[in-house]
Amino acid sequence: MPNQRNHWSDPAAVPFPVRAHHLLCAVCVRGGCDDPPCGRVTLDPLLDALWSYPHLPLLIGADLELARAHFFDVYEARAQQPLPADFSSRNAVYTDRRKDLEVCRLLGIYPNTMLPAMHAFTILFSRLPTLQGMCRGLAGDSAVWPECPHVGAGYYERITDAPQANLQQQTAQGEQLAGQGIWALFAPRTRDEMARAKQASADYILHTAERLYIRPNHLLCLLCQRHLQEPLIEDNLVELRRRMEAQPDIPVTLTEGCCMVCDPCNVYHPGEHLCYHAHPKNVLRDLRMLEILGLPPGATLPARELYRLIFARIEKLQDVCGWGDGSNYAPFWAPCGAWQGTTLADARAEGFLQADTPPTA
User: Fold this and answer.
1) What's the pLDDT score for residue 339?
2) What is the chain's percent helix, strand, coil content, to nearest 5?
3) pLDDT averaged over the chain?
4) What are the beta bridge partners of residue 116?
5) 359: exposed, middle or buried (C-beta count within 10 Å: 0-12, 13-18, 19+)?
6) Torsions phi, psi of 103, nearest 5?
């Protein structure tokens, strides 16, 4: 993963336009299809952009507006409202128009909506494991509604059938994931890069830092992992806990966005300083938690005082990690899986970080 900004992340950048069903064609190409119906000239720029940046903003298009032409103008050539010059060509590709809308439906978006690429393909893989009912037609192959000539080759399924690695496995495997599942489309960070990031950031946290920078919701993640003794390969939660236990009054600055936890993670983009797997929901968790604590972004408190405030102000994890009501409106807004547990109450009862003297090593 490059340690520099990607031009697609510029706030002024125009999202990458893509026909919705071409997302399926892109997967088939990564699965071995050399001649997709839309052509490699169409797909190669998309594939190159995806490989360069997992958070690529995609403008996912579908020709919904064609159906707004008045039926008299279409079928009786009334011509009171002249049809677009390209009406006939757009009208002729009704099979592709159906697939575009089917993909938008599966993604849960309105046609011509922007969605970051990693989220688009993650949702697509979870909801469309095969091309049945999509490129493999609803009523079989016919001259009127032809199926894709490659649908029986299994190109798409070759990618979607790959086992889904969890975050720890992703970080451990690094570049070995390339070509497997979602990582057929996006370049994973290399093991060497993540290992170097882990060593440098962990050493700094444990031995050098005079202040810790932690995003608010990661303070709750730390509580969930508070009994772990061995460092995690994918984050620095254990190291941060150890430093706070050794020095309970060390200043902690609450950052809005990625923090000292994130450096070694496979879905952390160091050039963009971005968690492209959970960016919007983690920012919202940060802001919800700051509001409950009565603090602004950038507030700095001693670690002990910060957890004292957390235990006093936050009644349960559901308030932050479960959106208060446990709602799950979209995969990129999904609540954390631990929100129903008793972690916060248990840590409060244990007096986490509240002892007058730190524990002995």
Assistant:
1) 84
2) 45, 10, 45
3) 94
4) 57
5) exposed
6) -65, -45
Residue 2 has a pLDDT of 67
Q: What is the pLDDT of residue 79?
A: 82
175 residue type, one letter: E
The answer, yes or no, to whether residue 207 has pLDDT greater than 60, is: yes
User: What residues does 213 pair with on adjacent strands?
Assistant: 253
Among 19, 52, 60, smallest CA distance to 38 is for 19
Is there a contact between 47 and 30 (Cβ–Cβ < 8 Å)? yes
**Which residues neighbour 277 within 8 Å (Cβ) at sequence distance 6 or greater?**
118, 167, 267
Cα separation of 25 and 72, whole Å? 35
Element (H, E) at 282: helix 279-293
The pLDDT tens digits for 29-60 are 999 999 999 999 999 999 999 999 999 999 99
DSSP H or E stretch at residue 254: strand 251-254
Angle (CA) 53 129 31, round 5°? 55
Give SS3 for 318. Answer: helix
What confidence category does residue 359 fall into, taking pLDDT thresholds of 50, 70 and 90? low
